[in-house]
Amino acid sequence: MPTIVVEVMPKAELLDPAGKAVTGALHRLGHSSIAEVRIGKRFELRVDGEVDAELLTQVEEVAADMLANGVIEDVIDVRVEGAGAAGETH
Amino acid sequence: MRVGVITFPGSLDDRDAMRAIRFAGAEPVALWHGTHDLDGVDAIVLPGGFSYGDYLRCGAIAARSPIMAEVIEAANDGMPVLGICNGFQILVETHLLPGGLVKNDHGDFIRRDQRLRVESTSSAWTNGFTEGQEITIPLKNGEGGYIADEATLDRLEGEGLVAFRYLDVNPNGSLRDIAGLRNERGNVVGLMPHPEHAVEAGFGPDTPLAMRSGVDGLTFFTSVLQQSVLR
């Protein structure tokens, strides 16, 4: 079953308090070489049948409209993984 | 006047909002997120809480729940809509108000009695205040940092759409100390602090007069009554 993966990250210029908290914890554990952590979201959309260009366009639209809030986040990747993917990437 | 309060899965302050409406002299009407029925109400409150568990983003799923189609249409027709905390997050996710709300800059959930300055009285929910009035109502949130791009912030300031600003401390890193907004028409207002928790002596914030005697929140709900009388 092909899976469309959508990745969303907080906008680069925005403070990511959750990432900042994790960065602090890593530093306390001695991982001082890790300068910064930013936390985003990965959505896996399982698809019945083939992924065609039309479906991918629909997913790109819904990713921009609902899965991410353009005010605070960027959709950084929409791609197909799994059987039937045929290495397709957008 | 009948004021609807919408309960979403995860709403916490819907009953407090209904109580506040009753104290103000209006009739509270319970509404349910899963319907397309506003039950003929004259105004709507989107209460605080954690709608849909705040999954995806705060307010994001609630903004796309069945009843919100009717709320958006009614708001665009001029019906008064007040979004409190999670309700404010729902309003920005529906784009009835601009910008977004992100995790507090210090990373912690915060609860405090918060002083605010009333910046705009030109709205259905703030007309009972005086311009520049300082009020105290409770604030409690983990994701209350208001953000928007510079152009939007300048427009909000220029058009007088900032309804409330934080005083003394900025509790969540909100840009330009913005605590609440109104729309151009003045019927839609959203804010992070909770007026419905400051409507009855004995249960509100402390005042110099007596402990827990603050009732500054009541004016939100009497304002909308006043608005309906004037209309």
From TrEMBL, chain A:
<dbReference type="GO" id="GO:0004642">
    <property type="term" value="F:phosphoribosylformylglycinamidine synthase activity"/>
</dbReference>
<comment type="subunit">
    <text>Part of the FGAM synthase complex composed of 1 PurL, 1 PurQ and 2 PurS subunits.</text>
</comment>
<keyword id="KW-0436">Ligase</keyword>
<dbReference type="Pfam" id="PF02700">
    <property type="entry name" value="PurS"/>
</dbReference>
<dbReference type="GO" id="GO:0005737">
    <property type="term" value="C:cytoplasm"/>
</dbReference>
<keyword id="KW-0658">Purine biosynthesis</keyword>
<dbReference type="InterPro" id="IPR003850">
    <property type="entry name" value="PurS"/>
</dbReference>
<dbReference type="GO" id="GO:0006189">
    <property type="term" value="P:'de novo' IMP biosynthetic process"/>
</dbReference>
<comment type="function">
    <text>Part of the phosphoribosylformylglycinamidine synthase complex involved in the purines biosynthetic pathway. Catalyzes the ATP-dependent conversion of formylglycinamide ribonucleotide (FGAR) and glutamine to yield formylglycinamidine ribonucleotide (FGAM) and glutamate. The FGAM synthase complex is composed of three subunits. PurQ produces an ammonia molecule by converting glutamine to glutamate. PurL transfers the ammonia molecule to FGAR to form FGAM in an ATP-dependent manner.</text>
</comment>
<keyword id="KW-0067">ATP-binding</keyword>
<comment type="similarity">
    <text>Belongs to the PurS family.</text>
</comment>
<protein>
    <recommendedName>
        <fullName>Phosphoribosylformylglycinamidine synthase subunit PurS</fullName>
        <ecNumber>6.3.5.3</ecNumber>
    </recommendedName>
</protein>
<comment type="pathway">
    <text>Purine metabolism; IMP biosynthesis via de novo pathway; 5-amino-1-(5-phospho-D-ribosyl)imidazole from N(2)-formyl-N(1)-(5-phospho-D-ribosyl)glycinamide: step 1/2.</text>
</comment>
<dbReference type="InterPro" id="IPR036604">
    <property type="entry name" value="PurS-like_sf"/>
</dbReference>
<dbReference type="GO" id="GO:0005524">
    <property type="term" value="F:ATP binding"/>
</dbReference>
<keyword id="KW-0963">Cytoplasm</keyword>
<keyword id="KW-0547">Nucleotide-binding</keyword>
From TrEMBL, chain B:
<protein>
    <recommendedName>
        <fullName>Phosphoribosylformylglycinamidine synthase subunit PurQ</fullName>
        <ecNumber>6.3.5.3</ecNumber>
        <ecNumber>3.5.1.2</ecNumber>
    </recommendedName>
</protein>
<keyword id="KW-0658">Purine biosynthesis</keyword>
<comment type="function">
    <text>Part of the phosphoribosylformylglycinamidine synthase complex involved in the purines biosynthetic pathway. Catalyzes the ATP-dependent conversion of formylglycinamide ribonucleotide (FGAR) and glutamine to yield formylglycinamidine ribonucleotide (FGAM) and glutamate. The FGAM synthase complex is composed of three subunits. PurQ produces an ammonia molecule by converting glutamine to glutamate. PurL transfers the ammonia molecule to FGAR to form FGAM in an ATP-dependent manner.</text>
</comment>
<dbReference type="GO" id="GO:0004642">
    <property type="term" value="F:phosphoribosylformylglycinamidine synthase activity"/>
</dbReference>
<feature type="active site">
    <location>
        <position position="196"/>
    </location>
</feature>
<keyword id="KW-0547">Nucleotide-binding</keyword>
<feature type="active site" description="Nucleophile">
    <location>
        <position position="85"/>
    </location>
</feature>
<dbReference type="GO" id="GO:0005737">
    <property type="term" value="C:cytoplasm"/>
</dbReference>
<dbReference type="Pfam" id="PF13507">
    <property type="entry name" value="GATase_5"/>
</dbReference>
<dbReference type="InterPro" id="IPR029062">
    <property type="entry name" value="Class_I_gatase-like"/>
</dbReference>
<dbReference type="GO" id="GO:0005524">
    <property type="term" value="F:ATP binding"/>
</dbReference>
<dbReference type="GO" id="GO:0006189">
    <property type="term" value="P:'de novo' IMP biosynthetic process"/>
</dbReference>
<comment type="subunit">
    <text>Part of the FGAM synthase complex composed of 1 PurL, 1 PurQ and 2 PurS subunits.</text>
</comment>
<dbReference type="GO" id="GO:0004359">
    <property type="term" value="F:glutaminase activity"/>
</dbReference>
<dbReference type="InterPro" id="IPR010075">
    <property type="entry name" value="PRibForGlyAmidine_synth_PurQ"/>
</dbReference>
<feature type="active site">
    <location>
        <position position="194"/>
    </location>
</feature>
<keyword id="KW-0436">Ligase</keyword>
<comment type="pathway">
    <text>Purine metabolism; IMP biosynthesis via de novo pathway; 5-amino-1-(5-phospho-D-ribosyl)imidazole from N(2)-formyl-N(1)-(5-phospho-D-ribosyl)glycinamide: step 1/2.</text>
</comment>
<keyword id="KW-0963">Cytoplasm</keyword>
<keyword id="KW-0067">ATP-binding</keyword>
<keyword id="KW-0378">Hydrolase</keyword>
<keyword id="KW-0315">Glutamine amidotransferase</keyword>
